[in-house]
Amino acid sequence: MALTREEVEHVAKLARLELSEGEVEKYTVQLNAILEYARKLDDLDTSNVPPTAHAFPLENIMREDKVTASMEQERVVANAPDEEEGFFKVPRIV
Amino acid sequence: MKLHTKCAHELHDLLVSKEISATELVNDVAARLEDVEPKVLAFVTKTIDEAKAAAARVDDKIASGEKIGPLEGIPMAIKDNMCTEGVPTTCSSKMLHNFVPPYDATVVRKLKEAGSIMLGKVNMDEFAMGSSCENSWQEGTRNPWRLERVPGGSSGGSAASVSAGQAVFSLGSDTGGSIRQPAAFCGVVGLKPTYGSVSRYGLIAFASSLDQIGPFSRDVRDCALVMNAIAGHDPFDSTSAPIEHPDYTTFLDQSIKGWRIGVPKEYFGEGIDADVSETMQKAMKTLESLGAELIECSLPHTEYALPCYYIIAPAEASSNLARYDGVRYGFRAEEAEDLISMFSKTRSEGFGEEVKRRIMLGTYALSSGYYDAYYLKALKVRTLIKQDFDRAFEKFDVLLSPTTPSVAFSCGDRLNNPLQMYQSDICTLSVNLAGIPAISINAGFADGLPIGVQFMGKPFEEGRLLQISHAFEQATSCHSQMPPLKGGCAE
C-alpha cells in the first residue's frame, strides 16, 4: 500500500518537520520507492525468528550510588542559542 | 624529506633517532594540508596553531630524554562527529554549526594521552548519513585520486585527508560502511572494529546499535598502532565490551599459511563491476601464494541486508535526532511564535535533505501500525543475517569480499537517487548488522582509481584481520602509492 501525501504530512508532523509543498511531493515519491524496496523483507518467513536489536547481548551496568561533581552550570548553558541567568530560554509557553 | 608521505611508525623512528623534530613534522604536514586543501576540501575546522604548540611540548619531552610513545607527535585528523573540547564539532550540519563541546570523546582523550596531535576536524556527510561526502553543509570533499570523483562517505574527509597526506592517520565512524567504503575509494586502510571494541562516548549518535569508531591509516601497521591507542572498555559507554584487548602489533608479520578464507558468492554476483571482480581474483591468487586456502561459501541472506539496514538505521536515527530542538545547543530558527513551531522551524531549517529523509523514514517505520511490519520485521531479518556469519565462522578464519561494487563515482551522479546511493554500501552493511569487525585495504587500481578488498572476521578478532591485511600488504605494493591529485587542477 503506497504512502499518501497526507501520510507524509502526518509523519512530518510527528517528526517535528515543516515541509514545503515541493518537499512533500518529493518525499512521497522517494519514501514510497524505499519502502517498496523494503517490502523485499516480506519474502522471508520470520515467524519463528527472534528479533536482534543489538549484535551482542547487553547487561545493565550498575555503579555505586555516589554523588559526584557535575558540569558547571556556566558550561552547560554555554552552547544554548538563548540563555538567561543560567537557564535555557524558550518562547513563552503559557 | 617529504614527511607527509610517511607512515606513523616510520615517523616515530625518525623522531626517536632525532633525525626530525615533532615541530618539523607538524609544519611539514600542515604545509601539505594547506597546499592541497583548496583541491581536496577535506577539513571543516583547522587547529594548526594548537598543533604547533603541542609539537613544541613533544620536542621538549624528547630533548629532556623522556621516551615517547608510538603515536606521540604524529599529526592526525578527527571526523567532525566526535566531540573535541573547545573545538567546534559540527557533524557537517547547519544544526550544529556553532556547537563547541565542553568535553572530549573518549577516543579523542585517548589519542591526546597517547601524544597524537590533531590538525583539525574533517568533513563528512551530515550526521554521517550518506555514501559520498556530498551531504555536507560545507562543500563536499573530493577524491584525491581524481578530483571530480567522490571520496566516499560518510567519513570522506577522514579518508581523503590521509590519502592526500594532510594527516598521517585519522578517525572515522562506520554505521553501514562509512569507514571501509571511503577507505576503498581513497586507497587507504580503514578498519571497522567489532561493535563495543572502541568507546562511542562523545560520538554524535546516528544509529546507536550500528555506529562504531575506527581508524584510517596509510598502512596496516599504523592501523594496529591506532587500535592499540583507542580500543578498550569505557565505563562512560554502556555498550563498551568489558574485555582485554591484545597488543594488535603482535599479529603483524605472522604467516597466514593454512588459513581457510571464505569467499561468499553473494558478493560476487550482479552489480559488481568487472574491474572490481578482476582485482578480487588477483587478490585471491596473492593470498593463495601466501599459503591460504580460498573456498566459496554462502551468506544466503546478504540480499536482505540493504532493505534491513534502511529500516533499522533510520529508525534509530529518528530517535537519536529528536534531541535537536534548538533549546540547549546548536542552531535555532528565528521568529517562532511558540515552542512547537520553534522546534519544527529549527529542525526544518537546520537539517539537510538526506537527514530529513531518514528521519521521516524512521518515524514512519516506528509509528503505530507500521512498527511490526517494518521495524520488528527488520530486526528479525537482522537475526538471520547474523546467523549466516555465525555459521560461516564455524568453518573459516576470515571472509573476503570486495569493499565496494565499483570504484569512486562522479560527484553529483547519485545525489538525486537515494536508492542508487544506498547501493554503494551493499558490500559493507551486513557487517554492521552482525556487529563483526571488517577491514578494507587497497588491492589495486582501475583506470587510476583504487579498489578495496574487505576482510571480515569473528567478533573481537581484529588482530587476525590485521594479520591477513599485513600479509597481503607485504605481498603487494599498492599501499605505497600516493595520489597524483589529478583532476581540475594537477599537482
Brief sketch in words of this structure:
Chain A is mainly α. Chain A has 3 helices and 2 strands, in the order αααββ. Chain B has 491 residues and is of the alpha/beta class.
Topology:
The complex is a heterodimer of chains A (94) and B (491).
Chain A lengths: L4 H10 L6 H18 L34 H4 L6 E2 L2 E2 L6
Antiparallel strand pairs in A: 1-2
Chain B lengths: L7 H9 L5 H19 L2 E4 L1 H16 L11 E5 L26 H8 L3 E6 L33 H8 L5 E6 L5 H7 L2 E4 L19 E6 L2 H11 L29 E5 L9 H16 L3 E5 L7 H16 L18 H12 L2 H14 L4 H25 L2 E5 L15 H5 L6 H6 L3 E9 L2 E8 L5 H14 L16
Helix pairs in contact in B: 2-3, 5-6, 7-15, 9-11, 9-12
Q: Any overview of this molecule?
A:
- Chain B: It comes from Heliorestis convoluta.
- Chain B: It catalyses: L-glutamyl-tRNA(Gln) + L-glutamine + ATP + H2O = L-glutaminyl-tRNA(Gln) + L-glutamate + ADP + phosphate + H(+).
- Chain B: Its EC number is 6.3.5.7.
- Chain B: It is an enzyme of class 6 (ligase).
- Chain B: This is Glutamyl-tRNA(Gln) amidotransferase subunit A.
- Chain A: Heterotrimer of A, B and C subunits.
- The complex is a heterodimer of chains A (94) and B (491).
- Chain A has 94 residues and is mainly alpha-helical.
- Chain A has a domain at 1-44: Glu-tRNAGln amidotransferase C subunit, N-terminal domain (Histone, subunit A, Orthogonal Bundle), CATH 1.10.20.
- Helices cover 34% and strands 4% of the residues of chain A.
- Chain A contains three helices and two strands.
- Chain A has helices at 5-14, 21-38, 73-76; strands at residues 83-84, 87-88.
- Chain A has a two-stranded antiparallel ribbon with strand order 1-2.
- Chain A is flat.
- The mean pLDDT of chain A is 92.
- An eleven-stranded mixed sheet of chain B has the order 1-3-2-4-6-5-10-11-9-7-8, with helices on both faces.
- In chain B, helix 5 (156-163) runs parallel beside helix 6.
- Chain B has 15 helices and eleven strands.
- In chain B, helix 8 links the parallel strand 7 and strand 8.
- Chain B has a domain at 8-262 and 394-480: Alpha-Beta Complex (Amidase signature (AS) enzymes), CATH 3.90.1300.10.
- Chain B is globular and about 65 Å long.
- Chain B is α/β, with parallel strands linked by helices.
- The model of chain B has no long low-confidence stretch (mean pLDDT 96).
